[in-house]
């Protein structure tokens, strides 16, 4: 009888793990790539800008470092479900990519987390900024 009870308990536990692993994470969303193109700035570092172009390319710069848009670091970007991938290309040939999990998106706001769960909020630049 003990073996039967133990077997039922193990099977119930495994069934719970199986069904729980099928759930989508609470903060997970499907990113709308059509809302990304445009010029954005970091809400905490208002001198850091990112321009996402509709063709999947872009440029980033920081005006506090006396870098302007035409001097910025080029990158490519892509979206898959809730992931935003940014591939940066340095002036000396280095290539670095970053994967971010998008947790919130509107036409004017983009919130994502890096692999360490650090959130960043970007806001779309209104004309004149």
Q: How can the largest sheet be summarized?
A: 8 strands, antiparallel, barrel
Rg, Cα atoms, Å: 21 Å
**How many β-strands, per DSSP?**
8
Mean pLDDT: 83
The end-to-end span amounts to: 74 Å
Shape: globular
How do the strands line up in the largest sheet?
1-2-3-4-5-6-7-8
**Helicity range:** 10-25%
Number of helices, counting only DSSP H or I runs of 4 residues or more: 1
SSE order: HEEEEEEEE
Given as residue ranges, the uncertain stretches (5+ residues, pLDDT < 50) are 16-25
Strand percentage lies at 35-45%
Provide the fold topology.
Blueprint: H1 2-20, E1 38-42, E2 48-52, E3 57-62, E4 73-80, E5 83-89, E6 95-105, E7 109-113, E8 119-124
Antiparallel strand pairs: 1-2, 1-8, 2-3, 3-4, 4-5, 5-6, 6-7, 7-8
Highlighted features:
globular; 8-stranded antiparallel β-barrel; 1 helix; mainly beta; 129 residues
Structure overview:
The chain has 129 residues and is mainly β. Strands 1-2-3-4-5-6-7-8 form an eight-stranded antiparallel β-barrel. A hairpin with a 2-residue loop joins β4 and β5. About 8% of the residues have low confidence.
Short description:
It is built from one helix and eight strands. By secondary structure, the chain is mostly beta strands.
């Amino acid at each position: 009888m003990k073996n039967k009870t133990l077997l039922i308990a193990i099977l119930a536990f495994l069934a719970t793990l199986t069904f729980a692993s099928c759930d989508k994470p609470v903060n997970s969303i499907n990113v709308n790539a059509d809302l990304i193109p445009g010029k954005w700035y970091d809400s905490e570092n208002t001198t850091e800008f990112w321009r996402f172009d509709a063709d999947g390319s872009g440029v980033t710069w920081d005006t506090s470092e006396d870098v302007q848009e035409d001097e910025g670091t080029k990158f490519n970007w892509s979206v898959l479900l809730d992931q935003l991938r940014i591939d940066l290309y340095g002036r000396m040939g280095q290539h670095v990519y970053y994967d971010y999990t998008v947790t919130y998106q509107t036409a004017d706001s983009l919130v994502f987390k890096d692999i360490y769960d650090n959130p960043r909020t970007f806001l779309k630049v209104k004309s004149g900024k």
